[in-house]
Amino acid sequence: MAGYVVVGTQWGDEGKGKVVDLLGKHVDMVVRYQGGNNAGHTVVVNGKKTVLHLLPSGILNKDALCVIGPGVVLNPFVLFEEVEALEKEGLQCDHLRISDRTQLLMPYHVRLDELIEARGGKYKVGTTKNGIGPCYADKYSRIGIRVCDLQDWNVFEEKLKSTLEIKNAEIEKVYGGEPFDYDEIVAQFKGIREKMLPMICDSVSLVNEALENDKVVLFEGAQANMLDINYGTYPFVTSSSPTSAGVLEGAGVPPQSLTRIIGVAKAYSTRVGEGPYITELLGDEGEALRQKGFEFGATTGRPRRCGWLDLPVVKQAVRINGLTDIAMTKIDILTGYDKIPVCVGYELDGKQIDYVPASLEVYGRCKPVWKVFDGWTEDISQIRNYEDLPENCRKYVEFVEEYTKTSVSLVSVSPEREGNIIRKPLI
Ligand code: IMP
Questions:
Q1: CA–CA separation, 116 and 175 (whole Å)
Q2: Tell me, what's the pLDDT at 416?
Q3: Which pLDDT tens digit goes with each residue over 216-234?
Q4: Which is the closest atom of ligand 1 to the Cα of 127?
Q5: pLDDT of res. 300
Q6: Using only C-alpha atoms, what is the Rg of the chain?
């Protein structure tokens, strides 16, 4: 079986789309297995930039079936906005399939996310306010509405009626928000349902048959390990599992189908939203890195918090995901720094640890232990052979490899599609 997984090793925005793009032409199927339109990746279609939130970047490959898996929370209105934007640029999306088990992200989920975040203070997670958490909460409370429910309109209406009663009560009584009108939601879904019906499939058969027939299937992760609901900095996390384990659950495939698990790691680190961030650079230093790396969110436009590479974080991703390879991105952004610190552990109450503690109170007491590397000044953006990189740059890459005991198989040296050094072919 040939299942390839691309996951984020930090807090998202590592450049997963670039790695997916590189694998693109070898792939027969692309599957999204978790998250929703909280993701954001910029793709270029016929020379024009488009930001996708729900569709995987693999949608650009017309020859590969593109599947929205059961683990996703799907806002159908956003989905069709994206489909229509791509079609306007000449990319037909008739290779898109939606799993019948996928949860529908409803308008009340978005409103609840906004209301919950509006409480501010210690409750504020800094979500994308797209309804992700409330939708997963309903899924696990077993009051979610799934794509298969749209196939039988009576079932959809019945489920909407009973769930909306609960959700409207919560919106009004707990948060003082505006309730929803049942008929309005029904009317909205009547329209979108017609567009969705031809795309709905039993994705478990579709994806497993592809794997059984030795097709190359790419599982495209959104968000990242440190935003994982179990292993991230809870509660400052997203509500799904962006890990390789999330693939098994969210796409319905067996563990032995995952042959290559590629973790994408930015050569420094960034984070959007609230939550602890040990290597964060504040003030002018943070601003300089943000400007140099153009670190602004593709979904919300928020400035990303920026800092040095945190290797205990990457190591945690190696362990949890079983990474076979690391793809290191944006190392060119570090060009010109005289000294480049890398966090190699945390000092906690006088002892050194190399893992991410569960408790935020404990994590908050951790101080970074630095190893400082000498920088380089040469422009590396046109280099394509690893041996041609400046020695100090190679030392940096090789230290990551040594620390994580994982092959850094790809080093991205410029935003261009071709701007990569391939040390070990990924496919
Ligand atoms: P939610 O997923 O919208 O509930 O947001 C929860 C946390 O995950 C917030 O800190 C978001 O900023 C963060 N987050 C969600 N999706 C992404 C992403 O694609 N990139 C980076 N951060 C994300």
A1: 7
A2: 86
A3: 999 999 999 999 999 999 9
A4: 5
A5: 78
A6: 22
Half-sphere exposure of 360 (CA within 13 A, CB side): 12
Pick the catalytic residue from 13, 138, 149, 228: 13
* Ligand 1 centroid to residue 121 C-alpha, Å: 18
Q: Is 109 a catalytic residue?
A: no
Report whether pLDDT(192) > 90.
Answer: yes
Could you give phi then psi for residue 307, rounded to 5 degrees? -165, 180
Question: Per-residue pLDDT tens for 355-391?
Answer: 999 999 999 999 999 999 999 999 999 999 999 999 9
Cα separation, 38 vs 130, whole angstroms: 6
> Whats the size of the chain, residue-wise?
427
Query: Does the pLDDT at position 48 exceed 80?
Result: no
Dist CA 291 CA 126 (whole Å): 22
Pocket of ligand 1 (CB under 6 A): 11-13, 38-40, 125-128, 130, 132-133, 222-223, 227, 236, 238-239, 272-273
CA of 274 to the centre of ligand 1 (A): 10
Which atom of ligand 1 is nearest the CA belonging to 132? Answer: 4
Residue 242 exposed, middle or buried by CB count within 10 Å (0-12, 13-18, 19+): buried
What is the rounded CA–CA span in Å between residue 68 and residue 219? Answer: 10
Residue 120 has pLDDT above 90, yes or no: no
In sequence order, the β-bridge partners of residue 310 are 343
Judge contact between 327 and 410, C-beta under 8 A: yes
